Amino acid sequence: MINVMIVDDQEIITQGLKMILSQFENINVTSVTNTVEGALDKCSYEVIDVVLMDIKMPGINGIQGIKLIKDKYPNIEIIIFTTFKDDEFIQKGLSYGASGYLLKDATPEEIKSSIEEIHNGGAVIESSIAKKLIKSMSRHKVSSSEVKALTPRELEISILVGQGLNNKEISKILFLSEGTIKNHLSNIFSKLDIRDRTQLAIFVHENNLL
Fold first, then answer.
1. 96-117 b/e with 16+ CB inside 10 Å = b?
2. Once rounded to an integer, what is the mean pLDDT over residues 128-149?
């Protein structure tokens, strides 16, 4: 079961989305809230796997909300949920740790599959946005010491992330548990001084590790 929280200041959106998601047996909408402050409060006592986060809200906006939630609860995955494909906002949200974005006109099946993909350790990012994100989040070229800091297994997992595979897919290829994959990723993030798999994928591509 995937526990989902919806954060949007429009009640028609939150209630409609809750109704849509309730038809899927593997998704449980734990709560809805219309502010980032409310989301932070619920994150402190609810078990939440994925947050659908609107961008423009009263008080703290959704982009800052992403940073606040990821800084305090790094294991919670966040999907930017927006009306317009505003590249600047989306890039900022992804740089703060969001795992992807959805437009509000997405079909129920698209929303479901995106939640599942992100919950399984993947990302949902359109190629045009990904290219701009790579430019805006440019890192230094890899040094020999950084490559040597990764074990052969960590390098292998990094490359698979760069190929777009999620944790579930990587675990099947390497015959390892998803928990083991997550542990390896935590070590990789620490060694390379990055915060999430999106930055890892960018790092892999920029430094031609594929």
1. bbbbbbbebeeeeeebbebbbb
2. 60
Q: How far apart are the first and last CA of the chain?
A: 34
2-128 belongs to which CATH class? alpha beta
Pairwise CA distance, residues 81 & 69, whole Å: 15
Contact 34, 82 (CB under 8 A): no
Per domain, the residue ranges of the chain are 2-128, 138-206
Q: Yes or no: is domain 138-206 CATH 1.10.10.10? A: yes
pLDDT tens digits along 160-203: 988 888 888 899 999 999 889 989 998 988 888 877 787 787 77
Structure-token match 């990789």, residue found: 188
Contact between residue 125 and residue 133 where contact means Cβ atoms under 8 Å apart? yes
